[in-house]
Design brief:
This protein is α+β, with helices and mostly antiparallel strands. It has a single domain, classed as Umud Fragment, subunit A (Ribbon). About 25% of the residues lie in helices and about 30% in strands. The strands form 2 sheets. Strands 1, 2, 3, 4, 9, 10, 11 and 12 form an 8-stranded antiparallel β-sheet that branches. A 4-stranded antiparallel β-sheet has the order 7-6-5-8, with no helix packed on it. Strand 6 and strand 7 form a beta hairpin. The termini are far apart. This is Signal peptidase I. It is an enzyme of class 3 (hydrolase). GO terms for molecular function: serine-type endopeptidase activity; signal peptidase activity.
């Protein structure tokens, strides 16, 4: 009888430890996110199940072209791509991204822009965005959706505080035919 009780206790203890580990991982390390909407097409699709690395920006700073999840409102998170970093001036002119007046290629958009009829990304400068900044201030980033014709991003929201970033999208986990790392 004591042996059976010990076995049950071992099972309960194992499940308890597993549950605590799952909670710690979910709260502090990785988080699942489902893409909701077309703003990151063609690179991310509505319904894609992503794994977000939550410690990326605790240990480091965002890099240009990182795909990030951030708190857009108290109840809603958005997924966008980091385009501008602190200290930079950003403008878009004739389908070309300029950072500090130097053209920057966006390889993740090339195919889409070539096949699109019309203007894919309308011209703008950092000064035209909410906040009227000349340079991106410390602690902020400029984000854009890959689907520039249908994305609520820094052009409407303004610059995003780095402390609102949940983490970096690392992996498309579902659907299986799209399984892989979130690329540039």
């Amino acid at each position: 009888m004591a042996e059976k009780r010990s076995e049950w206790f071992d099972w309960i203890k194992a499940f308890g430890i597993a549950a605590i580990l799952a909670i710690v991982i979910r709260l502090f390390l990785f988080s699942p996110v489902i893409v909701d909407g077309p703003s990151m097409q063609p690179n991310l699709q509505n319904g894609d199940f992503l794994i977000v690395n939550k410690i990326s920006y605790i240990l480091g700073e965002p890099d240009r072209f990182d795909v990030v999840v951030f708190h857009a409102t108290e109840s809603r998170d958005y997924i966008k791509r980091v385009i501008g970093l602190p200290g930079e001036h950003v403008k878009y002119e004739n389908e070309t991204l300029y950072i500090n007046d130097e053209p920057v290629k966006e390889p993740y958009l090339e195919e889409r822009v070539e096949s699109f009829s019309g203007t894919y990304t309308h011209d703008f400068t950092l000064e035209n965005l909410p906040g009227n900044f000349e340079k991106i201030p410390d602690g902020h980033v400029l984000v854009l959706g890959d689907n520039r014709t249908n994305s609520k991003d820094s052009r409407r929201l303004g610059l995003i505080p780095v402390d609102e970033l949940v983490g970096k999208a690392q992996l498309i986990a579902w659907p299986l035919d799209r399984f892989g790392f979130v690329g540039e």
